[in-house]
Amino acid sequence: VQLQASGGGLVQAGGSLRVSCTASGRTFSTYATGWFRQAPGKERELVAAITSGGTTNYADSVKGRFTISRDNRETTVYYLQMNSLTPEDTAVYYCTGRHPITGRDVWGQGTLVTVSS
Description:
The chain is mostly beta strands. 0% of the residues lie in helices and 54% in strands.
């Protein structure tokens, strides 16, 4: 299984951006998936997660602003819609997936989101 993240870029504060993650491998629809981010000088942190059944979880700092979703049709693609962005949201965003049985994590390469003030 491999993950390919895309959609990062530069946006002004208050704006919106959507990042996407496309998974290769037919079994990925059973994985729990999520987005982490890592800002300069800070530890990587969980932003949002969604299970194969659609249950979502968000960091307190993004609740009400970010929405995670996934599409499990032919391939698994999942998204992070980010609204009302602030400079504090500037980070490299990583998509990840967790195998439902082994618990092994798979990581994408990261996509940079920069929010200007």
